[in-house]
Amino acid sequence: METGDAHLDEQHRQAIALVDQLEMAESYLHQTGELLWVVAERLMEFTVDHFLYEEQLMASVGYPAGREAEMVRQHRDFAAYARSRVMEMRAHPDASLVPTAESLRRWLVDHEFGLDRELVQWIRENGKEAA
After folding, report:
1. What's the angle, vertex CA 120, arms to CA 117 and CA 122, rounded to 5?
2. How far is residue 5 from each of residues 2, 11, 21, 124, measured CA to CA in Å?
3. Treating both helix axes as pointing N-terminal to C-terminal, what angle do 65-91 and 117-125 enclose, rounded to 10 degrees?
4. pLDDT tens figures, 34-64
5. CB within 10 Å: which end of the chain, N or C, has fewer?
6. Cβ atoms within 10 Å of 89's Cβ, excluding its own
């Protein structure tokens, strides 16, 4: 799932690792519910930082406005989805996290193979470097 941008690729590996931790947290939920909230909070914080990095990268290289707008829209949609899942988790603490973790993983992979890869390819093709 490499895009070719070392920092972006490392962030993607971290995101997948956090989703893995979320899945593991559910399997240990009977031992400690707090672990679940710690991992969910880390994932939310990480996502905000990651999206900010991508958006700053696009601005620094002059990424075309239409492509940038689609990336930002996907970021906002994902953040809204994640917030709604957190609210759902709070309302139903005994509900399974497996569907949420699977959705998060699928979204991350689709986003990375789609728009993130297009961004890195555009940067290379246009001889741009992050400012």
Report:
1. 105
2. 8, 10, 24, 10
3. 160
4. 666 777 777 778 888 889 988 998 998 899 9
5. C
6. 16
Q: pLDDT digit string (tens) for 3-31?
A: 667 887 888 888 888 777 777 766 665 54
Structure tokens at 101: 């973790």
Question: Residue 50: in which H helix or E strand, if any?
Answer: helix 33-61
Residue 80's contacts (CB-CB under 8 Å, 6 or more residues apart) are none
Tokens 């555009």 -> residue? 122
Tokens encoding 117: 């890869």
User: Does pTM top 0.70 for this prediction?
Assistant: yes
**DSSP string for residues in 63-95:** --HHHHHHHHHHHHHHHHHHHHHHHHHHH-TTS
